[in-house]
Structure formats: C-alpha cells, structure tokens
C-alpha cells in the first residue's frame, strides 16, 4: 500500500477506534499497519487491545503471544501461548509455531516440565500429520534446542545431520 494511503487507513482506523473502542477488528488491522510500518510497540498495544476485547479468540491470543515473543517479552508470550494451547490445540487456526515459541519460553525460564509439555504437544501434532515438513522442522528445532540447553552439542549436531540427510533424500 502506498505511504499516503497507509497513513489515511491508519487515521481512519484510529477514528473508528475512538468512536468505538470495542471494535476488535479495527484494532487487528491497525496492529497490522503499525507492524508493517515498523512501529512494533504500537502494533503490540493494538494487538493487546484486540486480544483483551476477545479473550477466547485463539487467533488474537496467538498473534499477541507471537508478537510478544519476538518483541522480547517472554513472560507475556508464555502466558498468551499457553492460553492458545489450552483454547485450541486441535483447532484449524492453531499455528504450531506457537509450540516452538512456547517451548523456547519455558526453556529460557528454566521450566523443564513445561518445556516437555510443549515438546510433547509438538510430537502429538507431528504424529497426526507425519507428512508435514513444517511440523517435522519445528520438531527438529525443539529437539536441537533441548540438546543445546543440556550442553549436548554433539547430540544437537547429530540431530541436525540426521535432518539434513532426510531433507537431501527428499530432493
């Protein structure tokens, strides 16, 4: 979108929100515009507002959790992504990337039990969709990070080599 049109859209959305602060969709679109413009803290606040208006919405909790993670707020990310897993692990809107980020949050927080739950959930998803290359890659990420956390560099490298051989065999 052109810069001028983006600014117009942003102003229109801000006016909509001013007139009706409960308009969750306007907060969503404003979050996307702010993100696209590089205004990450403002995007996160719009995302938070949208999520707060619809606390049971998987997608909005997921967006908030992911944005919090990438913004460096692991605590908010872990809370939101844990809620996402509880709300909709089986849902079609659930993105398995949430499990990777959640596992990383738990590892960073030093919570091996919570890490193991996220890892187990990823394995369940992969078992239900064994042909999914994306899920297989996510699973590898979690396994490698776990080995690195345990300071098992050789085991992490072995896992990466195994996955590289698998990928080469697909080509």
Question: What does this 3D model show about the protein?
Answer:
- The relative contact order is 0.07.
- It contains nine helices and no strands.
- With 171 residues, it is mostly helical.
- The model has no long low-confidence stretch (mean pLDDT 93).
- It is elongated and about 55 Å long.
Question: Which secondary structure elements does this structure contain, and how are they paired or packed?
Answer:
Blueprint: H1 3-19, H2 24-36, H3 40-53, H4 58-70, H5 74-88, H6 97-109, H7 112-128, H8 133-149, H9 153-170
Helix pairs in contact: 1-2, 2-3, 3-4, 4-5, 5-6, 6-7, 6-8, 7-8, 8-9
Concise overview:
The chain is built from nine helices and no strands. The chain is mainly alpha-helical. The model has no long low-confidence stretch (mean pLDDT 93).
Question: Characteristics of this structure?
Answer:
mainly alpha; single chain; elongated; 171 residues
Number of helices: 9
Biggest sheet details: none
C-alpha end-to-end distance:
37 Å
Helix/strand order, N-terminal first? HHHHHHHHH
Mean pLDDT: 93
How many strands in all?
0
């Amino acid at each position: 979108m052109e810069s001028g049109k983006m600014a117009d859209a942003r102003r229109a959305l801000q006016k909509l929100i001013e007139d009706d602060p409960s308009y969750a969709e306007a907060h969503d679109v404003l979050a996307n515009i702010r993100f696209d413009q590089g205004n990450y803290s403002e995007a996160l606040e719009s995302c938070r507002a949208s999520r707060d208006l619809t606390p049971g919405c998987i997608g909005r909790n997921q967006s908030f959790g992911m944005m919090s993670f990438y913004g460096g707020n692991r605590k908010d990310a872990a809370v939101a992504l844990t809620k996402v897993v509880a709300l909709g692990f089986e849902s079609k809107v659930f993105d398995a990337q949430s499990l990777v980020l959640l596992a990383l949050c738990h590892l960073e927080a030093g919570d091996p039990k919570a890490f193991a739950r996220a890892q187990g959930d990823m394995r369940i998803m992969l078992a239900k969709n064994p042909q999914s290359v994306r899920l297989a890659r996510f699973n590898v990420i979690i396994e490698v990070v776990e080995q690195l956390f345990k300071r098992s560099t050789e085991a992490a490298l072995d896992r990466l080599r195994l996955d590289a051989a698998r990928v080469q065999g697909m080509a």
